[in-house]
Amino acid sequence: MTRPLKNLCEIAVIGGGLAGLAAARHAARLGRLVTLFEGSGMYGGQVATVDEVDGLAAPGHFSGQDVAIHLLEEAQKAGVHVVDVPVARLTAGDKLTITDEEGRAYHPEAVVIASGASLRKLGVRGEEELAGRGVSRCATCDGGFFREQDVAVIGGGDAAVTEALVLARHCREVVMVCRSALKAKRAYVDRLDARENVRFVWDSEVAEIAGEDEVTGLRLKDIRNGTVSELACSGVFPFIGVEPNTGFMPAALLAKSGHIKADDGGNTSDRRIFAAGAVRAGYGGNVVQAMSEGVSAAEAAVRLLAK
Ligand SMILES: Cc1cc2nc3c(=O)[nH]c(=O)nc-3n(C[C@H](O)[C@H](O)[C@H](O)COP(=O)(O)OP(=O)(O)OC[C@H]3O[C@@H](n4cnc5c(N)ncnc54)[C@H](O)[C@@H]3O)c2cc1C
Fold first, then answer.
1. Is it the case that residue 4 has pLDDT exceeding 70?
2. Deepest in the core among 12, 44, 140, 233, taking most CB within 10 A?
3. What is the CATH number of the domain that holds 254?
4. Could you tell me if 195 and 165 are in contact, meaning their C-beta atoms sit under 8 angstroms apart?
5. Residues 163 and 261 grouped into a single domain
6. Residues enclosing ligand 1, CB less than 6 A?
7. Gap between the Cα atoms of 4 and 26, Å rounded
8. Do 152 and 221 belong together in one domain?
């Protein structure tokens, strides 16, 4: 009798950000057959366009791409099979089934979800229409186009402040539009304070991005009294937080926020499904934690298969 075919996807990892790359590499190094799905065509997730990743415990300066490509190469050397197609659906019946956006189905024995989060949209007129024509989400990629021009950064968290620091190198003036006090780390805020070409508009949100063929300015609403004002600028960089990428997940595994409910070890209520990094409710928000959660989730998946 012929022997049954071995499952070539024992462990599936969804997401090629730093959590997913670390998980895939680790599970493969522990001897498992691993398939990694990445849907954007770019590895590194949220740090893919960051020119200097902060907080890595490593000598020297590394971009998000440096770290991601290194992890990807290591993962592939360890035998990880890479599928550059987004996952459309995960179903958790008797068998786990992953369906990718090209309609192929996979039946892993365990899944590590590391699909992370995407930058939240402002949801105002002009945002979609003027994307790439003044509206950008990457200071490193696009800052140079706004040399000696005025730009606005929307938001007050770590991402907004670090992107503003990049823009302040190129632009005449960077205006930070904030709904409330800055939430970014003290060290980032101190660096921003030291820049003479950065100013703040407080207690305000964007009502509209103005411009026909390209951005010409913003309509801002003061959230305390509703008054509307105009701000002239040629670039807008919104960084108002992130939303989890869980549209493909069974709803039963999700918290109200849309993140995956999982403990610190990545365990969900389905023993075959693990979560790591920014997609997990309770994730702390830095790359070291993302990678370490990826490794822990991979360990747990490998332990499950060994039983
Ligand atoms: C602008 C910015 C700068 C930052 N800078 C720093 C920093 O300097 N230091 C630091 O510690 N942290 C930084 N952070 C936070 C850090 O990037 C995140 O906490 C961390 O990268 C999360 O990693 P992750 O792998 O969990 O998720 P993500 O980075 O979000 O990666 C998720 C990946 O999954 C993929 N994916 C999503 N859905 C699917 C699907 N259906 N199928 C297949 N693939 C899918 C995405 O394309 C993405 O590649 C920054 C964040 C931002 C936004």
1. no
2. 12
3. 3.50.50.60
4. yes
5. no
6. 14-20, 37-40, 45-47, 50, 53-55, 86-87, 114-117, 159, 162-163, 245, 248, 277-278, 285-287, 290
7. 27
8. yes
Q: What is the pLDDT of residues 173-221, one digit of tens each?
A: 999 999 999 999 999 999 999 999 999 999 999 999 999 999 999 999 9
Q: Which two tokens stand for residue 259?
A: 């993140």
Residues near 297 by Cβ (< 8 Å), separated by ≥ 6?
19, 23, 112, 114, 265, 266, 274, 275, 276
Give the tokens for residue 157: 């968290």
Helices (H), 171-234: 186-193
Question: Of how many residues is the chain composed?
Answer: 307
Q: What total of structural domains would you count in the chain?
A: 2
Q: Residue 151: beta bridge partners?
A: 174, 235
To which residue do tokens 């949100």 refer? 205
